[in-house]
Amino acid sequence: MSTSSRRQTYQVKIDHITVGSQSPVIVQSMTNTDTADAEATALQVQELSEAGSEMVRITVNNPDSAAKVAEIRQRLDDMGCNTPLIGDFHFNGERLLAEFPECGRALSKYRINPGNVGKGAKGDEKFAFMIRMAAENGKAVRIGVNWGSLDQSLAKRMMDANLASSSPQQPEAVMKEALIVSALESAQKAADLGLPEDKIILSCKVSAVQDLIQVYRELGGRCRYPLHLGLTEAGMGSKGIVASTAALSVLLQEGIGDTIRISLTPEPGTPRTQEVVVAQEILQTMGLRSFTPMVTACPGCGRTTSTVFQELARDIQHYLREQMIVWRLQYPGVENLNVAVMGCVVNGPGESKLADIGISLPGTGETPIAPVYVDGERKVTLKGDNLAAEFLAIVREYVETNYGENGRKRERSRIIPIQTA
């Protein structure tokens, strides 16, 4: 999708990253460490960054955590990781920013939830203080409205007005409108307080797919602020992945969305980086960005009773993702590489020829050989127990030859690659 197809927005500069319609959709994630543990938090930020997260949000919820933000930033700088840090503030952000001014300076962006700042005049004062701090420090702000913490005074005001209307809407429709109004009114307050419009990002997160699509379509049509997409409390495992993909893909296809985060509940033992991988794969499979070489593989059937092709596809996919930490710097454009690992003669040769590199493994009853195709031409035929290692060697040689300093594909990247630390 070209930038002209995107919903047009202000361009928000966050350190070395620009968020907005003239830039690629940015991948964001969030730590789940105790921010007061500066070492653990910095290490997880680095891990998320290496996986491809371009901005990382950290919880700033108490004095112990606020006191460590500057140290976390310093640790990251010492590790050579310049990934912007976003401070997630709820309830007491103004107090933490006042007591720990170095926290506000070390962060690259503040996330403020208008529903959790406070009520009435006191809430307005707290919000104003945080906005002024952001403006003084030259920081961007995401005004993040959430279905589960909507400003109740606003919701009540709108519900009362709806009841008094001659043609009242359903309560669900009023609540969705309240989300949008909360975001837009808060953005206007921030602008009136001196925060430039090109320092404001908005989000209105809900947990139901159709509601999210409806809210963001409406919000996107009523402002020029960049929008952060995410299905809040998406869930665990396949449920969270499917729900997030269903919602975000519709909006991204319509040109709506400038940063995304996949709010997965991690399964026990699952790395935090899974949410980054899912976000990247949504953008890459839609053709919006390229992050890592893609592996095409068949699902298997009665013709493929051997697990060889499954194991090879898995190993190749893991290998390519691991190598990208180094390859994205050494081999520009390699993120567009396409590899096919097929399991039998039905679609194997055809898919392998269409890929940059492809291997067609023998199905049940087929001759135990595996032809390898490079750029559509049959290059070699592999067989024997060392097949996986030999194919990996061919992949490495292809990358070095085609994406190295004098490689013919080095400058062929069609989609803007990931911005790296």
Automatic annotation (TrEMBL):
**Which cofactor(s) does the record list?**
[4Fe-4S] cluster
IspG TIM-barrel domain sequence ranges: 9-279
Where is the IspG C-terminal domain positioned along the sequence? 295-396
Recite the UniProt cofactor note for this protein. Answer: Binds 1 [4Fe-4S] cluster.
**Annotated catalysed reactions:** (2E)-4-hydroxy-3-methylbut-2-enyl diphosphate + oxidized [flavodoxin] + H2O + 2 H(+) = 2-C-methyl-D-erythritol 2,4-cyclic diphosphate + reduced [flavodoxin]
Would you say which domain of life the source belongs to? Answer: Bacteria
Gene3D superfamilies per UniProt? Dihydropteroate synthase-like, Sulfite Reductase Hemoprotein, domain 1
The gene that this protein is the product of is ispG
**Does the keyword Translocase feature in the UniProt annotation?**
no
In Swiss-Prot or TrEMBL terms, this protein is called 4-hydroxy-3-methylbut-2-en-1-yl diphosphate synthase (flavodoxin)
What family name appears in the similarity comment? Belongs to the IspG family.
Q: Which Pfam families match?
A: GcpE (PF04551), GcpE_C (PF26540)
Please give the Gene Ontology molecular function terms for this protein.
Answer: 4 iron, 4 sulfur cluster binding; 4-hydroxy-3-methylbut-2-en-1-yl diphosphate synthase activity (ferredoxin); 4-hydroxy-3-methylbut-2-enyl-diphosphate synthase activity (flavodoxin); iron ion binding
Q: What is the E.C. number?
A: 1.17.7.3
